[in-house]
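Lecture 7 notes: from sequence to structure.
We start with the chain below.
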Amino acid sequence: MKSLLVLMLVGLLSTGAYAQIQEGPLNIIAVFAHPDDADSKMGGTAALMAKIGHNVKFVSITNGDAGHHEEGGGMLAKRRRAEAQEAARQLGIAEYTVLDNHDGELLPELHIRQQVIREIRKWDADVVLGLRPNDYHPDHRYAGVLVQDAAYMVVVPNVTPDTPPLTKNPVFLYMSDGFQKPNPFSHDIVVGIDEVFEQKVRGLDAHDSQMYEWLPWVGGRLDQVPENPVERFQYLLNSYTNRSRVSDEQRASLEKWYGAEKAASFRFVESFEICEYGHQPSEEEIRAIFPMLNDN
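Predicted structure tokens for the same chain:
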């Protein structure tokens, strides 16, 4: 009988069937590779979640100390940590933690997995967001693997025993990407962010070293970046406005969650895919995680 109970418990943990998402404030944590990753992928949704009372935390696994063409090392890491704190203030989220692992050198090693487990446990997470483990950047890929590897271990008491295990397996979601192989992103949940789109861009604006220096340099357009801060922000706002497009797949998901009339009104959206690991949420639980979907 004891063996049967153990098998049943393992089955429940592996499917996440015993966890329940309650209505009300939830603890949301996004874990990614570099300061600014989540800001670009879910900054608008994070701002909306914070406004409705969810406790939102961003965690960058690396310190970003390689992400620049002129600066590097500890001084760049210090600069990017400060940028992350300003981004958190602009988005209205509770915390933005930057771990001290080197940028460009991330591997899915045990001690870093333990760091991720600790962050998820300390936040008592109901929902964990991560990157898919297929991406052009090895840090992004391995950040995705690290979150996946933590998905079951966060409830195992004898793993990383210096932090108490979660009593429930969180919902794990992927933030969006455009990669097609080995499989394209599934737009399971699409959130309209028009009302906070400018706020999202202001969060990105806080990452000065990236938005106005490194990314334009590596993209061959550094000469297009204005010097004046007001003009710079307008440049960034125009850039994100011009390249934002709601795909057919996103529009179909919007209609599912918001209804056709409301869905048709959105110009700016962010998408999420339900990870097969962790608790598998019902439609009601998804609407509790994303109450804005009920606004139709």
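Points to note: The CA atoms of residues 156 and 213 lie 43 Å apart. The chain has a mean pLDDT of 93.
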